[in-house]
Amino acid sequence: MTAQPVIRAKDLNLTFQTNDGPVHALKDVDLDVSKGEFVSFIGPSGCGKTTFLRCVAGLETPTGGSLTVDGMTPDEARKARAYGYVFQAAGLYPWRTIGGNIRLPLEIMGYSSSEKARRVKETLELVDLAGFEKKYPWQLSGGMQQRASIARALSFDAPILLMDEPFGALDEIVRDRLNEELLKLWDRTQKTMLFVTHSIPEAVYLSTKIVVMSPRPGRISDVIDSPLPKERPLDIRDSREFIEVAHRVREGLRAGMEVA
Ligand SMILES: Nc1ncnc2c1ncn2[C@@H]1O[C@H](COP(=O)(O)OP(=O)(O)OP(=O)(O)O)[C@@H](O)[C@H]1O
């Protein structure tokens, strides 16, 4: 049985009108993402990765083609709170505690006090930050702040998690650990993940599907279904299969640059 697509993009185009002329940020993007997949988007700066995520989130309006999110228009999906969004910088409010930050979307959505408390506790446990509820962001390391920002995006239990280079600013050891934790979290929550990265090993390690993009105009140059098993210890990165997928991603990136 094939899972029903949660994200379906067909001939998606987006051209920004700028003072320097039109910028074709997305060109003829076709992509189906099934429920529960972990999809990474990789490509050089300016190839439209963030723009695609923002289209899914209903924050940009495509100029052509169609896009459905959980069977709805992106705008409807945004209103239905179908996704959580994690940004490159943790973006926590410094004047709120970690618990206060996670509680914020729940306050906006009008959850009851007991429900807010339950969800804050639950998501803090999910990202391994139990006990840090009353700390302020500046009291946490960069990796912990990013985990808190993931908890905030998970707090209202949306079926889709959009992550725009969430670990880009972290050192490699912290990033490795968060990658491992993210896979466990994905396994536990069964959410559909859309994840932007510049790192080939990160994309290969995390994903069930890797979307390779090329710039000017932003197109998909390859879509790779990962042959790696779901269970992924970090040393899987030394395996032949891993190296082969990484090689194919690199080739896709190179081919995209040559065409552009
Ligand atoms: N609001 C906007 N107005 C005009 N041009 C924009 C706007 N947003 C993005 N662009 C342009 O669209 C193109 C795609 O940008 P986007 O941020 O999606 O790329 P990206 O692949 O996410 O890049 P990076 O890896 O650097 O984050 C770029 O050329 C960018 O300058």
Commentary on this structure:
- The protein has two domains: 179 residues, P-loop containing nucleotide triphosphate hydrolases (Rossmann fold, 3-Layer(aba) Sandwich), CATH 3.40.50; 67 residues, no CATH class.
- The chain has a six-stranded mixed β-sheet with strand order 5-6-7-3-8-9, with helices on both faces. It has a three-stranded antiparallel β-sheet with strand order 2-1-4, with helices on one face.
- The chain is globular.
- It has eight helices and nine strands.
- By secondary structure, the protein is of the alpha/beta class.
- Adenosine-5'-triphosphate binds next to strand 1, strand 2 and helix 1.
- CA-to-CA gap between the ends? 38 Å
Summed up, the domain count is: 2
Structural class: alpha/beta
Order of helices and strands: EEEHEHEHHHEHEHEEH
Q: How are strands sequenced across the largest beta sheet?
A: 5-6-7-3-8-9
The gross shape turns out to be globular
Task: State the gist of this model.
This protein is of the alpha/beta class and 260 residues long. Helix content is 37%, strand content 26%. The radius of gyration is 18 Å and the shape is globular.
Secondary structure layout plus pairing:
Layout (H helix, E strand, L loop, with lengths): L4 E14 L2 E14 L3 E5 L6 H8 L7 E6 L4 H6 L3 E4 L11 H11 L4 H14 L15 H13 L5 E5 L7 H18 L2 E6 L2 H7 L2 E6 L4 E7 L14 H20 L1
Parallel strand pairs: 3-7, 3-8, 5-6, 6-7
Antiparallel strand pairs: 1-2, 1-4, 8-9
Helix pairs in contact: 3-4, 3-5, 4-5, 7-8
This protein binds adenosine-5'-triphosphate.
